[in-house]
Structures are given as C-alpha cells and as structure tokens.
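Record type: monomer structure entry
Structure origin: computed from sequence
Chain ID: A
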Amino acid sequence: MKEQKASIVVDGRTVSVDAGTVLLDACAAAGSKVPTLCFLKDVSSNASCGVCVVEVEGAKSLVRSCVVPVWDGMKVKTTSPRVLRARRNAVELLLANHPADCLICSRNGSCELQTVAERLGIRELRLPRTRKAPELDTSTDGLVRDNGKCILCGRCVAVCAELQSVSAIGLAGRGTRTRVATFMDRGLATSSCVQCGQCSVVCPTGAITERDDTAEVWKALSDPGLTTIVQTAPAIRASLGEALGMAPGSLVTGKMVAALRRLGFTKVFDTQFTADLTIMEEGSELIARLTQGGTLPMITSCSPGWINFIETFYPSLLGHLSSCKSPQQMFGAIAKSFYAERSGIAPETMRVASIMPCTAKKHEAKRPEMRGAFEYWKTKRDGASPASPGPWYDVDWALTTRELARMVRIAGIDIETLAEEAFDDPLGGSTGAATIFGTTGGVMEAALRTVYEIVTGKGLESLDFHAVRGLDGIKTAEVDLNGTVVRVAVAHTLRNARTILDEIAAGKSPYHFIEVMTCPGGCIGGGGQPVGIDAAKRMARNTAMYAEDLRLGVRKSHENPAVKALYAEFLGKPLGHLSHELLHTGYAKRSV
C-alpha cells in the first residue's frame, strides 16, 4: 500500500512529507529549524515549554509544533513577529527564576537554555524572580540536583520512568511551587534512584549533573608523596574526542593516553586489561554453574546502575548475579595489591582514578565491600583479616567523560594534535574482546569467544557474534558447546532488564546466560557521556568499538599475555582463593 503524503507550505516553501509527520520535523525538512527545550526525540514530547510554537493559517492560537501532526495543505510561519514574541516571552519567564551564573556553570557552552536565549536575541532579564532558590541535593555519590536551574521540561522524569522504569523523580506541586522532586523531597539517596545518570544526559540545563571530583584529582596529581595512576574504560576512547569537539565516534585511544600523561598521571593503564580478567573469572563461573548445577540463568554484574536496580527492585533474584566485581573494581584491587607489591609502592600512598562513561561508577567505588586490596594487605601484614572495612577504597575517584574533558581543556591540551602513545605495562595490555565491553552485547560476545574455546577445545570459525550486536532492546542467541545448547540474552536499559527479570521471577526464562547494561546502547550511551546524545551518536560510538576490536591483534580475552602472566605470577587460577578475595563480591537487598 502506497504511503500517503501531505503537502505543506513552510515559510513560503512547499515540502512533501509523510502524513502524520510531526510539524516540528516537517519544518526541519523545509529548512526551518524550530527551537525546542522540553522536546527530545524518543524521550520527551510533553509540549510544556512553549518555545517551539509556530503560526498555522486558520488556527486561532499558536501551535506547539512538537506534538501537532501535519495535514495536507497546511500553511505555516515559523518566524512571524507573533511567533518570535511568544518564544521570547516563554524563555524570559524561564530566565526570571534561573541563576545568572552561566560563566561558572558546568553546562556553560552546552546549555540548551543558553543556546535558545542567544538565538532569540535576549539581552536583558526583564522579569522579576518569583521563586526562592532551592537548596542543592548532594545526597548521592554520583549526581547533584540543582532545582534552581530546572526549567520543568520533564525530560528527566520521562527518561527515569519510561526508559529506565525506575520513577525516582516526578513533578510535584502546582503553579509556582511546581518542581521535580523525589518522594517527600527527601533527596535522591533515599529514593529508588540507581544513579545511572540518564537524567543528567538529557537535562537541557545544569539542573542535574555529575558530582565533580576533579578538584581532588588535581590535588593528588600535585602531591609528590602520592603515586596517582589512572584507568580508562573502553567506551571513553570513542566519546572523549566528541566531548572535545571532534566528530561523534572519533577513536582517540592513543591521543587519550598522551593527554592523561600530560595531566600528570604517573601511569596510564587500561580498564580493558581487567575487562579481559573479568571474562576469565566470569566465563569460568558460567562454566562451573553449567556443569555443577549452579543458579541459572547467570547474569553479568559489570554495570553498577543495573546492580543498584536489581538490589532495589528484585532482591530475591540476586543469586542469579555473577559474583564478579566490575572491571573498574577489579582494576583497583589488582593495582593496590599486585602492582603496588611488584613496584614497591606503599598502597596507602597510591591513588587510583577511573575515567568512566557512567555516574553510577562513583557510587560503586564507594561501596563498603570495595576494599579488597586493603584486606589483602592487612592479612599479609598482620596475618589476619581485618575486623572492619579499611580506611581506603580500591578506586579513589571515578571521573566521567565530561569531567576528563574539562580537565583536558583546563590544561590547554589540544587532543587532536597529540601524537598517539601506548598504555603502560603491566596493566595496559588488552584484547579486542575487552574493547567491545563498551557497547551492548559486547560482554556477552567477549564471554562467548572465551567460553566456547575453553569448553570445546576448538577455535571459533568466526569471532563475530552478530546475533548479540546492534541496538535492539533485547537480543537472543544460541551457542552449541559440545552438544549442550546454551541460550543467551542481551538487554540494555532497565526497562528491558525488567522484562527479563519478570520472566525469571515467573520461572519462564529459557536462558542460561544474560548480559544487562543499564544505559541505552550500553556504556557508549552512559550517564557520564557527552550531553546531547541521540541514536545517531550512539551508533557512531558503537561502530567505533567494533572497529577498535578489529584493529587489535588479539581478540580473545584468554589469549591476553598480560592476563596470563597475572595468573602465573600472582592469582594462580580463575576462581582460585586469591581471585575470590580480590575479584569477587556479594550483593544484598537495598533499602529505599
């Protein structure tokens, strides 16, 4: 059946679009870009801000173009005096209660309210403030809320409820008392918030941002008594360039290493090293559960927002989680035990910074059980395990992509002109399998590459498991392991995870192994990534991850020579005693 078309006139230009197209998109097709604030494709279209209004011939009032479909013969004006006056009024009302601290705001230069005000030529604040500035919500490790900068666009509420099915925040109050709030206004830490940070990625202003830890890192870098090392997550190499003005999906692996050295880090290591280590431990755990009657399906445990989610909403299913720590936490434990011991560094004087695409990593680093290295040293020095958690964590700071980008700009580093440099040994060597941890399906594919060869003793004809690739919400596949058919599933976003968990809870899950990532697209779409994310940017980062996988000479985690050496010199074997002490943990019901 032939698709119906609608012919409309926009600012004197005739354009033909599919019937039912939203007027905002039709105007863009005609070359007229209508400004928006509350609208965000695939996230929010509640028409609350009034900035996208246009004039439609025959209509009594201005039309909000983000929600109105076109009809054949429609005639539209997007820049009439009436339209421009209405847009300015709407934005001036928002600015009346908005802090005028643009010069020191972390969103300076990436604030959509700032951009729209500039586009509309607003040069003075004509209207008086009608609301008292609220206090900051700094109750969580990962996020800071400043309702004084909130424009009530509803994006954060929509992404929390619809994309993540968490609903930690909502609109409360009426009139001038309307606000985005947690239950009883008690703060994010007492809510069901999993600190995924998707709210901070879609927020058009600085109302929700990551907690900025860069001042502490700068201080450590300038302290000659400290050894400050850094690890970089797989997804960072495909997003840092974008945060610094390069095209989405730009791979800056070697340039990123060079920039981190110029910032002053003693050693620049790679989280991909411990991503390979994770596969060795997690793959061995899966094989043990398959062959020894363990709890199935087993679910990956790399994503901290996902861990917070299952601890909060499905604590009865915690036995399905892998006991493996995330690569970030494995790195911290290995750095402050094996690497400190080998290098003759007192672990108390070592500081570990992580560059992560994720705000929930900040919370993960501060979990009380993430002190494996302290326990290792306490036992080694005193001959007994500590009676209580130690004074220092395995990972000291988890910085987001956005925070690192700010540090690079402060230091005056032009990343595009830097020559590429290599990661340091011994915690810098990794494989292509570790690289694809940065995108949805990557952990599953990396695990299958290793598990298949360990179980069958045969090499794979192809290392590319296309069935678990792509940005579909839930992907499934089957793998034959010497006659045993293993069924796997991959889910990204917590709404899709909820679907998987409901199947398990009902006893209807057909799977043996499940990968869950909190954010859309996996870590490439993480809550600490550059703002202004959309499907095209996620796909560009996704493509970069697989390109990096192909570029690396070794593409299977169990063939990483540095990981082999770690087991030979220190850990002994996967799932061994020391591995359990340093690399594994447990999870418990989270009270809200």
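Annotation 1: The chain has three domains: 1-129, 131-210, 215-583.
Annotation 2: The first strand starts at residue 5 and ends at 10.
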